């Protein structure tokens, strides 16, 4: 699977099917990439405007970071499909003998780690994207500020979505210490960055408040 080369229709069609991939992790990565691109668009619309000449260098730097993030998120969407395919196959391994049971447990534990690590990285990228939106909201052109709000809402949703892909996999891990560590990292990002995203969204929405 190559998410960047798929059409929107193709991605949605396979997502809606009974195919094991893509799933919630890949969808979260794509949503975050779209959200990042919306912030990036605001940066593009800001460049070259005399009114924003004093922040032009900042916007150029923000856009460069957004370009990288978009690519990283799409690549993580592909990676998520790759590692989940391994886990999906592992569920079907035989367990008729003690040796087979031990081998299945070993393979599944490794696959569960991979299937938790990738969405954790997606969450980290979502956090970076939310931070970028804070900058785009502060420095981007006012004519497209609503797109910062939409973009940060997408990244927030993707952050939440990716976290569930961690929690469902860590629940099945034999190594409970590692599971607890991953869950803690995910929970910390949720605590900090859902609030930051909400604050950014509220700041954008407040600009459109009208007096009765």
Helix-and-strand structural type: mainly alpha
* Overall helicity: over 70%
Q: Outline the low-pLDDT stretches.
A: none
Q: What is the gyration radius calculated from CA atoms? A: 20 Å
The CATH superfamily turns out to be Formiminotetrahydrofolate cyclodeaminase monomer, up-and-down helical bundle
Q: What order do the SSEs take from the amino end to the carboxyl end, as H and E?
A: HHHHHH
Please give the alpha-carbon distance between the first and last residues: 52 Å
Principal-axis shape = elongated
The main pleated sheet reads as: none
The CATH architecture can be named as: Up-down Bundle
Strand content: under 5%
Counted by DSSP, the helix tally is: 6
The figure for the number of domains is 1
Number of strands: 0
The mean pLDDT is 95
Instruction: Return the CATH class.
Output: Mainly Alpha
What is the third-level CATH name, the topology? Four Helix Bundle (Hemerythrin (Met), subunit A)
Describe the structure.
- The structure is a single chain.
- The protein is mainly alpha-helical and 212 residues long.
- It has a single domain (25-47, 64-205), classed as Four Helix Bundle (Hemerythrin (Met), subunit A) (Up-down Bundle), CATH 1.20.120.680.
- Helices cover 79% and strands 0% of the residues.
- It contains six helices and no strands.
- The longest helix is centred in the middle third of the chain and has 42 residues, at 98-139.
- It is elongated.
- The model has no long low-confidence stretch (mean pLDDT 95).
């Amino acid at each position: 699977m190559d998410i960047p080369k798929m059409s929107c229709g193709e991605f949605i069609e396979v997502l809606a099917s009974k195919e094991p991939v893509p799933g919630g992790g890949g969808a979260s990565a794509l949503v975050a990439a779209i959200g990042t691109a919306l912030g990036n668009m605001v940066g593009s619309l800001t460049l070259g405007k005399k009114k924003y000449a004093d922040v032009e260098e900042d916007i150029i730097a923000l856009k460069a970071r957004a370009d990288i993030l978009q690519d990283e998120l799409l690549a993580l969407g592909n990676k998520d499909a790759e590692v989940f395919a391994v886990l999906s196959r592992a569920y079907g391994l035989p367990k008729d003998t003690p040796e087979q049971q031990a081998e299945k447990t070993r393979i599944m534990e490794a696959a569960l780690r991979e299937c938790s690590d990738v969405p954790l990285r997606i969450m980290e990228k979502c956090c970076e994207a939310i931070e970028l939106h804070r900058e785009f909201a502060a420095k981007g052109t006012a004519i497209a500020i609503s797109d910062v709000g939409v973009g940060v809402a997408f990244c927030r949703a993707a952050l939440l979505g990716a976290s569930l892909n961690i929690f469902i996999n860590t629940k099945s891990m034999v190594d409970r210490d590692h599971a607890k560590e991953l869950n803690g990292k995910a929970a910390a990002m949720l605590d900090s960055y859902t609030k930051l995203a909400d604050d950014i969204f509220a700041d954008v929405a407040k600009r459109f408040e009208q007096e009765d």
